[in-house]
Amino acid sequence: WVEHVLAADADHAKFVTSSDVDRDGDLDILAASSDNYTVEYFENDGNAAPTFTRRLITNTAVGARSVHAADFDSDGDIDIATASRDDNQVVLYVNNSIHRSAVLEGERIVTTYSQTRSVAAADIDDDGRPDIVSTSNNIVAWHRNLGGSPPSFASSVIDNSFQGGRWVTTGDLDGDGDIDVVAADRTTNRIVTYFNQLRQSGSVAFAAQVVTSDAMRVRDVNVADLDNDGDMDLYSATDGDNTIAWYENTDGSGRTFAKRIVTQSVDYPRSSFAADVDADGWLDLLSASAQDDSLTLFRQTSRGVFSQQTLYSQADGAQFVYADDIDGDNDIDLLLGSELDNTIAWFANRLRAGRGFERFVVSNTAAGVHAAITADMDGDGDKDIVGAIEYADKIVWYENGGGFTPTFTEHLISPFADVAHGVFAADLDTDGDIDVLSASRADGKVAWYENRGGQFGIAQSQPGGGSGNSRVLNAAVLSSRGRSGDPDLWLRGITLRFETRLGQRLSAGQASDLFSAVSIYRDNGDGQFNPAVDARLVTQTSFPLNNGEMTLDVPNAPTAAAAATRYFVVGERRNQLCNPDSIRVTVISNNRTAADGVSGVPLLGEYMRNLSDSGDPTQGRKPPIVINEIMADNLTTLVDPQEPQEYPDWFELYNTSEFFIDLGGTYLTDDAANLRQYRIPDGVVIAPFGYLVFIADGEPEQGPLHTSFSLSKDGETLVLYDVDARGNQVIDQISFESMAPDVSIGRSPVNSSQWTGLDAPTPGRYNQDIVASDFVYLPSITTPNACY
Question: Is residue 439 included in any domain, yes or no?
Answer without folding.
Answer: yes
